[in-house]
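Sharing a chain and its predicted structure for anyone who wants a worked example. Both blocks are below, sequence first, tokens second.
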Amino acid sequence: MCASGKYSSRGPALIPRMKTKHRIYYITLFSVVLLGLIATGMFQFWPHSIESTADWTLDKRSVHDAPLVRLPVSSPIPERGDLSCRMHTCFDVYRCGYNPKNRIKVYIYPLQRLVDEVGVPISSTGLSREYNDLLSAISDSDFYTDDVTRACLFVPSIDVLNQNSLRIRETAQALAILPRWDRGMNHLLFNMLPGGPPDYNTALDVPRDRALLAGGGFSTWTYRQGYDVSIPVYSPLSADVELPERQPGPRRYFILSSQTAIHREYRGELERLKEENGEALLLLDKCSNLSQGAASVRKRCYKSQVYDYPQVLQESSFCVVLRGARLGQAALSDVLQAGCVPVVLADSYILPFSEVLDWKRASVVIPEEKLPEMYTILKSIPHRQVEEMQRQARWFWDAYFSSMKAIGMTTLQIINDRIYPYAAHTYEQWNNPPVVKWSSVNSPLFLPLIPPRSPGFTAVVLTYDRIESLFRVITEISKVPSLAKLLVVWNNQNKSPPEESLWPKIAVPLKVVRTKENKLSNRFFPYDEIETEAVLAIDDDIIMLTSDELQFGYEVWREFPDRLVGYPGRLHLWDHEMGKWKYESEWTNEVSMVLTGAAFYHKYFNYLYTYKMPGDIKNWVDAHMNCEDIAMNFLVANITGKAPIKVTPRKKFKCPECTAIDGLSLDQTHMVERSECINKFASVFGTMPLKVVEHRADPVLYKDDFPEKLKSFPNIGSL
């Protein structure tokens, strides 16, 4: 009791004394830590410099509100310009650094009102609407940063688009006083109208030292390959006139010339061509009987007949784009917008964005001395090629010429591709119209080693009107554990699919897609409903495959996602007597194809089959209603350089209930046509891509003397 009483009297008094003794220490320590965190946060998020606080926002774009800056007469002037500059000599790529998005960061200098010592502006026009649109587009893009320390590229807010409005010396001085100028390193200038009378230089005359130039009139003499960017001369009509896209094809006129300030020698040659070819060539000029003004700019005349411009450009297959005082002409943009194939006669001219655009697909470039032969040259181009060029011309305008934003973003992307070449846009991305949403599809050549098991596969069943057989196929496939979705492609336009209540009830989504035409290629169309990487193409009469066979086929495909994985194998052979290829379905030790009546493949190949199949193979398949599986085998083998994989011993697809009328492959001419297909496709591909192998894939315990219930795939089926 005494001991207990003693402890009770000391315990409560001891604890408060310990708190009092250390309270100041703990409060001080906590305060220091808290102040440290606050200081770290302020350092992290507070602007790092005065320059970075000047964000390019709407309220800063008015020159009237910008601060006034006077340029002393003694201000330095940059060097004229280094013609030897290249990205590795005059551009500091280390400013750009590594970032996960592989995207450069662009800083725009704050607006200033720049005047000389006596208060005269350095530009007669100030900030043009076009340059304001350009800067706005950059500031709204993912390239933009308001933090000057993170910037890889610097864009001055000094408008040098039109040299005619500039005072050359004072503009150069204004560039030199930019805080980060550093001899123009990593600075980008946009200029569309270079030079001035009398010589009209093909590059901006403002001294700019090492700055990159996005110029609208480069010649081979002034263009620094791989450093400068050749851009189009923007046509103000793009914003004012909306030309609806016209279908490619023959037009009212074969050749049209609409430029007004053509040199008299060129006009004389065009008039001679007009005399020789009559109505096929329309030669327009400025309208002399109209009063000058905004309206006259949009008119062209031939004698007393008045035409609306640029609408008249849509009436011709080819449109002449001749050099004027400057190499770059806004007429090129007008012609592209009209879907007219430009015929460019401007020796040494660097076409816009030629670093990435394939102009052979959208234009005809003819030396100036060949102008008298222009009609003959253009007549030699096949009609089909002309239509492709018309389509490509319009797409070039839509993608790269249609606005100052399009021009600015294309310029920055080209520079971005130079700095991050491993993430650069491909030739196809630059030059192929985006008919397909490729961004949602990954190539199986770059998938992980083994795609995940969880998503499963989508079964695509092509059918016409074999309802009973179709329903049996659906029922059997639904038993496969990895089935994620079942898509029925209804290929009969004369008959509606059964009512929803009649379809088999299965545990996964079942979708029916109705096609517009009865084509075999419909089975390989990239339907939006296909969300899995793996696709099982299967016919509506393949009722003999077991769920174990299908599941095993899918497991094999997961190991080889870039291959065709199928069941019955076929072979191509060279017939020495006939001197051509032969299709073989007999028993052999070799396989070079698998039938897509039931085969697994990656959905990427649906896109390639539909949009990238060489030549006229797809149309040929649809016309003959045969060989779509051979075409797919050719395509996959050509892309991957690999043979298909045959799984399980099954040799044939036997449909006991199908008659000769029902089964397409039972037609007597079937085998002959299959051999014709192989020879036709080899001719189109220009090679024989099919690879021959002597093996197949079977489950590990397939032939082992082992209890069936312990095997993963006991019901593999027979030959």
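Comments welcome. Confidence is low (pLDDT under 50) at residues 1-19, 42-60, 655-666.
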